């Protein structure tokens, strides 16, 4: 066959495109990527993916390797997370899918069937810090979202959650720990009360699931806790697998069967599966399976200890920086850092200016917006760091970068909402503040993006994110959501 382009040329171009990406290895990006720092693990994963490349993960009866690998991953996860023979599970394509399926299962169990079927809208109850995947789940599956305010340290009081229990609550979700603040939710109390009320209790351990088993001083949070009905734990985070792998474990076979969708009522092959996709790659499963076997619990423990050492060291570094503070008492290898309001304004370090400035020193931190809770209290803007085993290899350079960046922006006030709004071209500001309920058209949204300098964002993120985050905070959420939708949609529109 005569190809349009030579494979070598195609791969050359791909290489060029990849060079423009944020670096996935070497510890320069402190979110999104979970680098074990072990090149041989990456090689093993690549080989495993290649070995199953043509396999369709849809059908484990035709491709029996899929069933064997999934069974072995589930067994490993069940043992790691304190499950007994009553705990069963599924490998999914990621944390979001695990969370979606936990909610779908609980909704269908809540609804019941036949003469015991329940009508009405079920409720999903969780601290406001619960991962946004649960907002997505409520949206997709038609649950009312009930988000409980947390303390300024990101920790929710168990009684505030339990006080909102009711017959319409299909599921309560707690995190171990939460992504934004690394706050450990009160799993034991909430799960016990949930069991009493017959409410499903999901522990979202997407980020903690593969690292907390080896962490010191963590309150109980896994299947050893009575009342916990399901746990999500991402293999593609601290299981060090390539993206596309997570587990959802459920207690009680009968409950878990509600996760499945089955139909024989069409003229094709029977569709019977516990996950959202149809045909799918077996690659991430094979890679995760291979990595688990290579590492075993002792390897995972060793990598977790590295994360713990680096997290302690970075916490000390930040504690030592005047004007910054670590939010709450983080559990696990992640930190949220806020401006320290206790020191005088001219000694404060704005967390977002700090993140932007740290980027100048070669490290990418993640800016997190402030949030007004339903009780009117405001969770401050923070900067997020996820610490992985590779962090230890750049610890000195990173520590220096964090200190220098803070020195360089100390005393510079946060970009205020007013300033962010005032910076908008007049006509844009007027259009945005008009009480016109009509949604923006694609064209109008694009004009606003252009006016605030965000059109053609295919070159990547702006150099400075602090002004953008301030703007996000200043505009009504539905409007920001609309604008960001436009931004992302236009990113993949054909240019010619
Ligand atoms: C990452 C994460 C998720 C969502 O997982 P994805 O793999 O990004 O879909 C859910 N919950 C928590 C706590 C997470 O950290």
Automatic annotation (TrEMBL):
Gene3D superfamilies: Aspartate Aminotransferase, domain 1, Type I PLP-dependent aspartate aminotransferase-like (Major domain). Keywords: Aminotransferase, Lyase, Pyridoxal phosphate, Transferase. The keyword Cytoplasm does not apply. Its cofactor is pyridoxal 5'-phosphate. The keyword Transferase applies. It comes from the Bacteria. One of its GO terms (molecular function) is transaminase activity. InterPro entries: GrpII_AminoAcid_Decarb, PyrdxlP-dep_de-COase, PyrdxlP-dep_Trfase, PyrdxlP-dep_Trfase_major, PyrdxlP-dep_Trfase_small. PANTHER family: PTHR42735, SPHINGOSINE-1-PHOSPHATE LYASE 1. Belongs to the group II decarboxylase family. Sphingosine-1-phosphate lyase subfamily. This is Aminotransferase class V-fold PLP-dependent enzyme.
């Amino acid at each position: 066959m005569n190809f349009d382009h030579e494979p070598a040329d195609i791969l050359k171009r791909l290489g060029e495109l990849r060079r423009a990406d944020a670096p996935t290895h070497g510890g320069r990006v402190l979110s999104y990527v979970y680098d074990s720092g072990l090149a041989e693990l990456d090689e093993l994963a690549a080989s495993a993916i290649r070995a199953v490349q043509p396999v369709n993960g849809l059908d484990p009866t035709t491709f029996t390797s899929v069933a064997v690998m999934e069974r072995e991953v589930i067994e490993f996860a069940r043992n790691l997370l304190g499950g007994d023979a009553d705990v069963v599970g599924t490998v999914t394509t990621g944390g979001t899918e695990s969370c979606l399926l936990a909610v779908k299962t609980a909704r269908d169990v809540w609804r019941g069937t036949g003469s015991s079927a329940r009508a009405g809208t079920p409720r999903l109850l969780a601290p406001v810090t619960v991962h946004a995947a649960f907002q997505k789940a409520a949206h997709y599956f038609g649950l009312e979202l009930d988000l409980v305010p947390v303390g300024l340290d990101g920790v929710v009081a168990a009684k505030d959650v339990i006080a909102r229990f009711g017959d319409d609550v299909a599921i309560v979700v707690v995190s171990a720990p939460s992504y934004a603040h690394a706050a450990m939710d009160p799993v034991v109390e909430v799960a016990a009360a949930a069991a009493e009320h017959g409410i499903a209790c999901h522990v979202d351990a997407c980020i903690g699931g593969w690292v907390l088993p080896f962490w010191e001083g963590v309150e109980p949070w896994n299947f050893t806790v009575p009342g916990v009905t399901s746990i999500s734990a991402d293999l593609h985070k601290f299981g060090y697998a390539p993206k596309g792998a997570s587990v959802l474990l459920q207690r009680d076979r009968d409950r878990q069967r509600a996760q499945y969708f089955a139909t024989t009522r069409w003229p094709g092959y029977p569709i019977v599966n516990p996950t959202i996709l149809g045909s799918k790659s077996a690659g991430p499963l094979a890679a995760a399976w291979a990595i688990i076997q290579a590492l075993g619990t002792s390897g995972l423990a060793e990598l977790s200890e590295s994360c713990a050492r680096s997290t302690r060291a970075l916490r000390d570094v930040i504690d030592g920086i005047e004007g910054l503070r670590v939010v709450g008492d983080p559990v696990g290898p992640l930190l949220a850092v806020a401006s320290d309001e206790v020191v005088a304004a001219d000694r404060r370090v704005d967390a977002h200016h700090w993140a932007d400035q740290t980027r100048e020193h070669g490290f990418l931190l993640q800016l997190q917006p402030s949030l007004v809770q339903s009780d009117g209290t405001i969770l401050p803007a923070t900067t997020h760091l996820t610490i992985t085993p590779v962090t230890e290899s750049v610890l000195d350079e990173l520590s220096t970068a964090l200190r220098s960046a803070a020195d360089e922006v100390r005393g510079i006030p946060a970009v205020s909402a007013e300033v962010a709004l005032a910076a908008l071209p007049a006509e844009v500001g007027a259009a945005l503040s008009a009480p016109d309920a009509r949604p923006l058209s694609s064209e109008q949204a694009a004009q606003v993006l252009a006016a605030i300098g965000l059109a053609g964002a295919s070159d990547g993120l702006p150099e400075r994110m602090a002004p953008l985050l301030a703007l996000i905070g200043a505009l009504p959420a539905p409007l920001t959501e609309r604008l960001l939708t436009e931004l992302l949609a236009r990113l993949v529109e054909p240019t010619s």
